[in-house]
Amino acid sequence: MDKISELKAIAEKAKELGGINNYKKGKDAVAAFIAAANPAVILALLAELKVKDKRISELEAKLAAPIKIVNYDEFFICHVTGASDDYCKGWVDGRNAAARDVGKAGFTVGDE
């Protein structure tokens, strides 16, 4: 069990049992929570939270930036590559399918 899960379980037990006056298990649960929620643990949890917040911000920034997928027409592909019409149509269809799938995944697609 990780630190967050451990602290959560101790806190839930203290909340559940700690409100009962003159109940030894309740007093023990509150004492266990107070002992577990010491400054070092709280500071470690806050540091972990800060790292995760930073990572979320980085990922949100990446998600906001459009993904550039080159959008050439069939004529350009055929002219540059000298390939067959079928190849060129396949290339354009593949590009369009990729742009569609990237868009479905929640990203913004932009042309270069």
| H and E order | HHHEHHE
Shape, please? Answer: rod-shaped
What summary fits the major beta sheet? Answer: 2 strands, parallel
Query: Number of DSSP helices?
Result: 5
Major sheet: order of its strands? 1-2
Structural class of the helices, strands and pairings?
mainly alpha
Write down the Rg.
28 Å
Oligomer: single chain
Write down the overall mean pLDDT: 83
Q: Give the low-pLDDT segments.
A: none
Helix/strand layout:
Layout: H1 3-18, H2 24-36, H3 39-64, E1 67-68, H4 74-81, H5 85-104, E2 109-110
Parallel strand pairs: 1-2
Helix pairs in contact: 1-2, 4-5
Question: Gist?
Answer:
With 112 residues, the protein is mostly helical.
Description of the structure:
It is a single chain. With 112 residues, the chain is mainly alpha-helical. The protein contains five helices and two strands. A two-stranded parallel sheet has the order 1-2. The protein starts with a helix and ends with a strand.
Looking at this protein, list some descriptive labels.
5 helices, rod-shaped, mainly alpha
